Amino acid sequence: MRFALAVLLATSASAQGTLFVGTWPHTIHVVDEAKQKVIDKIDLSTGTPLDMTLSEDRKTLYIETLENAGFEVIDVATHKVTNSLTLNEGSKKYRFSAWAPDPEGKLIYTLYRTVEKKSDRFEVDRNTKFGVIDLAQKKIVRTGDVPKDEEQVGFGFGGGMRFSPDGKFLYVFRNSVYIFDTTDFKMVDKIDLSKPQFPGMASLGMGRVLDSIQEPGMLISVFNSQDPVVHRSIFGIARFDLNKRTFEFTPVGPSATGMTGLQVTPDRKRGYTVAFNGQGGTRRCEFWEFDLANNKLIRKQEFDGRARFSFGISSTGKEFYIFGAGYTVEVYDAASMQLRNTIDLSADITSGMVVVPATR
Amino acid sequence: MKHLRAVNQKARRIEDYLAANDDVVGLQAPAGQRPHVPMGCSLVFSPGWEVDSAGGTAGLCQPVERDLYDCYITCFWPAQVPDHLNNYPDWTAKCAAATKDWRNIDLVFP
Which residue of A has its CA nearest to B62? Predict the structure, then answer.
């Protein structure tokens, strides 16, 4: 009986996944979710990790680094860097506003502008361009123009980029959803979120829509909107089908001062976010739990939030992570919404967190 | 709001007004008075001497070292901290967690 229990506990522990967190100065910390300990550190040769994304098959991690407009590719199973590149050339530097690896993992699609240092000035490119980086050749092999009618400076900045499952279309999310053909960067469709099909909503804005453990081909996020009469802000839940290009909006209630992105449990039945009310010293933070089947807010719990932080969810959906700025990851129990323990990384967090579920 | 319908005279007048005009400007929330900090979040080139978006310090990370490196990372503004990009790339080589190890940060004399 004791042996059976030990086996059961071991199985339960190994069912958890792995966290990858980018830290100062140029490291990826690998944390075992079951042990809640740092089990490996991956050194990056190109600079400070700034942003990370996981491939659809969850086998490869792509990391953007800061100093030299670099990218590094990490094999999730072995924790080894399998590829790295930098794009800056002498006085010419690249700034990315968004990027995403293609479904085959051979290319990285970016939106970028260049900054060139001249003898007496910096020349900043006024136009944002698409750039396709070939990971084998380690350079931009194809470029494309952003549609001239769209805002050029900062196009795509603060939004997200996602491919259709077949890789034929590239979605750029901002206040509108732009859909481009990946072969020639021609815009094939634009869904204006300020004029949604849902009557009465205006000034619609999606939150950060990307998440690593959501349903393939489907994005779920929170959105904020104002009604056109008294301009009262409301928030709700949005679903975007990457295959059908359809949006589904469900308003839920009055907006908080701010919200983090929606984190969804692996069974997709529950969603969680952190809502803020107030500012500065009067700011209060709450975990909000949603029943995604009925699109209802079912629970709130206040907690001691940091001045600035990010919010994540474990691979099992049973823990929350509050991390950055700083060197610690706070682990909250999702059932009780109470602080359980703290993981000390001993290095300041510089990027988001990628949660890789266990493979078995 | 398709679930809402006007049930009194005032609400019907608002609906009528909206049908004739695009907007009810007077009902918009007034823009809050924001502090003007000419150089972003600080008036001086020294970490810690900064203000939050409301002009106070309550919204800043505590201790200030907690987000010291963010002056460089997300603000793209290395003026608050040594020039990590060109002249002093190793100024934090011995300090990964600034809150813990700030004594190991190199002194820089530009």
Answer: A307
Residues of A with CB under 8 A from a CB of B: 23-25, 27, 48, 50, 66-67, 198-200, 227-231, 251, 279-283, 306-308, 325-327, 345-348, 350
* Angle at the Cα of B109 from the Cα atoms of B83 and B65, rounded to 5 degrees: 60
| Nearest chain A Cα distance for residue B9, angstroms | 15
Q: Report pLDDT digits (tens) over B47-101.
A: 667 777 777 777 788 888 888 888 777 766 556 677 777 788 888 888 999 999 8
| Confidence bin at A294 (pLDDT 50/70/90) | very high
Distance of CA A43 to the CA centre of its chain: 22
Based on the fold, state whether residues B71 and B109 are members of the same structural domain: yes
pTM of the model: 0.84
- Same domain for B69 and B103, yes or no, is yes
Quick: pLDDT tens for A13-33. Answer: 444 899 999 999 899 999 999
Query: C-alpha angle with apex A25: A23 to A30, nearest 5 degrees?
Result: 30
Residue B13's domain spans which residues? 1-39
**CA of A90: which chain B residue's CA is closest?**
B86
- Same-domain pairing of B46 and B98: yes
Domain count, chain B: 2
Instruction: Report d(CA A339, CA A321) in Å as an integer.
Output: 10
Active site residues of B: 67
What CATH code is carried by the domain that includes residue B83?
4.10.940
Same domain, B18 and B66: no
The ipTM (two decimal places) reads 0.73
